[in-house]
Design goal:
The chain has 415 residues and is of the alpha/beta class. The chain contains 17 helices and 10 strands. 51% of the residues lie in helices and 13% in strands. Bound molecules: adenosine-5'-diphosphate and magnesium ion (MG).
C-alpha cells in the first residue's frame, strides 16, 4: 500500500479561516479603524492644507505600542493621496519611513531622495556618498520637482536615540531652503519622554501640532477584533465570548491592539490544528501560554553567555533537589561551569548584577530571606519550568557540551 503523502491529512483538514487570513497579521491595513475616528479626523484637518497646495504643520504623535499610530498614519496617507487625485492643486508626496530599520541620517535622506529620482543610474547609493552631498542632492531634487512633501518618521525616537537630532533639524529647516517645494514632518514615537532628548529648536518645530493616542480599553479592543473576525474567519468559528476574553487579556496588558489580534490569531490556529470547528475559551489560554513562552524563550536566547551560565547553575541545582540558592552558592557552581566551557569567570559582584537583571526579566525570582540569627540573605530560584529553560539554553552552541552535567547534593558538578 502506498504511504500517505505527508501533506494529505493537513490538506483534508478544514480550515477555520476564510481566504483572507492576512487580516490577522500586523501589517494588514483595514479600511475601517474603530475608535480612532477623532484622531483620523484631527490629522485630516491638519493635512488638508496639502490639498490646497500649502504646507501643513509638522506633527508629533505619541502613544504606547499597539495604539494604532502606524495604522492610522498609513490609512490617512492612503486617503490623502486618493483625495489628491480629485482635489489636489499641486504635486504631493507622502513618504513613510520606519526608523526602526532606517536609522541613520544617511539612510533617511537616501530613502527620501530616491522618491524623486526615477533614473536607476542616478539614484543615491546605499552608502558611499558624503552626507552633505546626499543632503544637497535631496534638496535640489525636491525643489526641482515642485510640490508638497509630507515625511512620516515612524519610531522617530529610535532614530534620535541612535543618531541624535541633527537629521531632524536639517529636515525641518529644509522647508525654508527651497523655492518651489514645501516639506512637513510627522514624527511618531512610543516614548513620551523622547522630546526631552531634542534640542529646543527642533522640539518647537516638530511639535507644532501634537496628538496623543490613548491605550484601548477592553470594549474598544472587542470592536477591533470583531472587524477582523468578519474579514478573516468563517462564520461561527469565533464567538463573542472568545473575543471578549482576548480583548480582556490584551486590555490588562496595556491595551495593545497588536497583542489582542495576535492572541486571537494564535487561538484560532491552535483550534484549527486540533481539528476543532470553533475556538473555545481554553484555546485562548493555550495561545496565551504559547505567546508568553515564546517571549521567555526569546529573552533567554538573547542573554549574554555569563547570564546563561548562571541560569543553568540555578536550573541544575533545582534538578538536584535544591531549588533555592544563595548568590554565593550560585557563584560557586557558575565558576565551575564557566571553566568547563572555557569562559573566564566574572567577579561575584558582576554576577550579582546579572542576577538582578534576570530577576527584572522575570526569568528568576530573587528575594531576601531571613535565616534567624544568621541574618538575612538573598535567595534565588528559577521562575520557569526547569525543562523548558534547559532546552532553550542548550540550543546555544557554547553550552551544548554541558548537556550531561548534573549536580551532586554537595553542589559538586559531575558529568
Ligand atoms: P502602533 O504603531 O501604535 O504600535 P499599530 O498601528 O501598529 O500600533 O497597531 C497594531 C495593530 O493593531 C495593527 O495590526 C493595526 O492594524 C491594529 N490596529 C490598531 N488600532 C486599530 C484600530 N483602531 N482598528 C483596527 N485595527 C487596529
Ligand atoms: Mg507603530
Amino acid at each position: 500500500m502506498r504511504a500517505e503523502n505527508i501533506f494529505e491529512k493537513h490538506i483534508r483538514r478544514d480550515t477555520l479561516f476564510k481566504g483572507s487570513r492576512e487580516a490577522l497579521y500586523p501589517d494588514y491595513l483595514p479600511d475601517y479603524l474603530p475608535h480612532r475616528e477623532s484622531e483620523i479626523d484631527r490629522l485630516a484637518e491638519i493635512l488638508v492644507t496639502a490639498l490646497r497646495g500649502e504646507k501643513p504643520s509638522n506633527i508629533l504623535i505619541y502613544g504606547k505600542t499597539g495604539t494604532g499610530k502606524t495604522a492610522v498614519v498609513r490609512y490617512v496617507g492612503r486617503e490623502l493621496l486618493r483625495a489628491q487625485e480629485v482635489y489636489g492643486h499641486k504635486n504631493l508626496e507622502y513618504i513613510y519611513i520606519n526608523c526602526e530599520t532606517v536609522d541613520t541620517p544617511y539612510s533617511v535622506l537616501q530613502n527620501i531622495g530616491n522618491y524623486f529620482i526615477e533614473d536607476w543610474n542616478k539614484k543615491i547609493p546605499f552608502t558611499g556618498w558624503p552626507l552633505d552631498k546626499v543632503f544637497t542632492t535631496v534638496r535640489k531634487r525636491i525643489d526641482e520637482w515642485g510640490g508638497i512633501v509630507i515625511i512620516v518618521l515612524d519610531e522617530v525616537d529610535k532614530l534620535v536615540t541612535k543618531s541624535g537630532d541633527d537629521i531632524l533639524y536639517q529636515l525641518l529647516l529644509l522647508d525654508n531652503e527651497m523655492k518651489n517645494s514645501r516639506l512637513s514632518v510627522i514624527g511618531i514615537s512610543n516614548e513620551l519622554k523622547f522630546t526631552d532628548l531634542l534640542d529646543p529648536r527642533v522640539r518647537s518645530r516638530l511639535t507644532q501640532e501634537k496628538l496623543i493616542f490613548p491605550p484601548y480599553n477592553a470594549y474598544q479592543l472587542e470592536d477591533i477584533l470583531e472587524e477582523r473576525v468578519k474579514i478573516a474567519v468563517k462564520d461561527g468559528v469565533v464567538r463573542e465570548d472568545v473575543i471578549s476574553i482576548c480583548a480582556a487579556i490584551a486590555a490588562q496588558e496595556h491595551g495593545d491592539a497588536r497583542r489582542a489580534i495576535e492572541l486571537l490569531r494564535i487561538s484560532i490556529e491552535i483550534a484549527e490544528r486540533e481539528g476543532a470547528n470553533k475556538v473555545e475559551e481554553r484555546h485562548v489560554y493555550l495561545a496565551k501560554n504559547k505567546i508568553e513562552m515564546d517571549c521567555v524563550s526569546e529573552a533567554i536566547k538573547t542573554l549574554p553567555l555569563h547570564s546563561k551560565i548562571i541560569l543553568l547553575a540555578v536550573a541544575l541545582s533545582e534538578e538536584a533537589g535544591r531549588p533555592q540558592l544563595t548568590t554565593g552558592e550560585i557563584y560557586e557552581i557558575y565558576r565551575s561551569l564557566s571553566r568547563r566551557v572555557g569562559a573566564s569567570p566574572l567577579t561575584q559582584r558582576r554576577i550579582s548584577d546579572l542576577i538582578s537583571e534576570m530577576d527584572m526579566l522575570g526569568l528568576i525570582n530573587a528575594k531576601v530571606k531571613s535565616f534567624g540569627r544568621y541574618g538575612r540573605t538573598k535567595v534565588v530560584e528559577l521562575a520557569l519550568p526547569v525543562m523548558e529553560v534547559k532546552k532553550i539554553l542548550f540550543e546555544d552552541e557554547l553550552l551544548m557540551e554541558l548537556n550531561n552535567v548534573k549536580l551532586t547534593s554537595q553542589k559538586k558538578l559531575f558529568f
